[in-house]
């Protein structure tokens, strides 16, 4: 038996100050982000989704809401799907601008492979894949064909995929394949991930101006 788990990245965030918001509260979806979430919900509502779980952060919960309404599901919360911890959160460095202009931040750049500025990549991979497997178990309890959706954030989804594909976790952020409101789907056979698919339901919408982390 195989079960598919969809990792849904949240939509664009309203962030005119270009703050690296990380896990900070108060960062909600922009109007574009809401539209992106609705298109993702339309895409996923065509699947036999029986279980929906989200990161606790507001932008993820908002992204989950249209799908919950479309399918009549409640939104469970799993802390393991949360954004990566980052020592730079709250700084106006979103998008990479300003990262190397403040000498007070230099201490965080000593080891980019770990990375030294935040939660270790290996730790992120472990917790997100554990959350995906827990969602897989929940879907299987619902029925043989049931699928699940986990709403999370770009870096956690990318790192989980890289671990599942056996690739090194350190990478170039500019080459991440995980756009806003995108869907990265893991197909499980037992405890093993045997297939990974990717879709961008909101690709037809115009680009916005949020940081989108």
Helix content: 25-40%
Q: Report the structural category.
A: alpha/beta
> How is the main sheet built?
6 strands, mixed
Tell me the name of the CATH homologous superfamily: Phosphoglycerate mutase-like
Topology pattern, helix = H, strand = E: EHEHEHEHEE
* CATH architecture name: 3-Layer(aba) Sandwich
Walk across the major sheet and give the strand order.
Answer: 3-2-4-1-5-6
Q: Which range does the strand content fall in?
A: 15-25%
| Topology, number of strands | 6
How many domains would you count in the coordinates?
1
**Per CATH, what is the topology?**
Rossmann fold
Shape: globular
What does this molecule look like?
By secondary structure, the protein is α/β, with parallel strands linked by helices. It has a single domain (2-199), classed as 3-Layer(aba) Sandwich (Rossmann fold), CATH 3.40.50. It is 29% helix and 17% strand. Strands 3-2-4-1-5-6 form a six-stranded mixed beta sheet, with helices on both faces. A hairpin with a 2-residue loop joins strand 5 (183-189) and strand 6. Helix 3 (121-142) packs across helix 4. The model has no long low-confidence stretch (mean pLDDT 91). It holds the Pfam family His_Phos_1. This is Histidine phosphatase family protein. InterPro entries: His_Pase_superF_clade-1, His_PPase_superfam, PGM_Phosphatase.
């Amino acid at each position: 038996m195989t079960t598919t788990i969809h990792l849904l990245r949240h939509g664009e965030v309203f962030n005119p100050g270009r703050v690296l918001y990380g896990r900070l509260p108060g960062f909600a979806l922009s109007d574009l982000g809401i539209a992106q979430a609705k298109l993702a919900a339309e895409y996923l509502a065509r699947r036999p989704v029986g279980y929906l779980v989200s990161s606790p952060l507001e932008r993820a919960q908002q992204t989950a809401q249209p799908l919950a309404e479309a399918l009549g599901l409640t939104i469970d919360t799993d802390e393991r799907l949360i954004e990566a911890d980052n020592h730079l959160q709250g700084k106006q460095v979103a998008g990479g601008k300003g990262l190397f202009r403040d000498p007070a931040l230099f201490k965080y750049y000593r080891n980019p492979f770990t990375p030294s500025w935040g939660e270790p990549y290996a730790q992120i991979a472990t917790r997100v894949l554990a959350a995906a497997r827990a969602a897989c178990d929940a879907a299987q309890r619902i029925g043989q064909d049931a699928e699940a959706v986990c709403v999370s954030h770009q870096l956690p989804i990318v790192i989980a995929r890289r671990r599942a594909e056996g690739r090194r976790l350190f990478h170039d952020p500019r080459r991440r394949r995980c756009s806003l409101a995108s869907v990265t789907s893991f197909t499980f056979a037992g405890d093993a991930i045997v297939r990974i698919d990717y879709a961008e339901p909101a690709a037809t919408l115009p680009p916005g101006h949020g940081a989108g982390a």
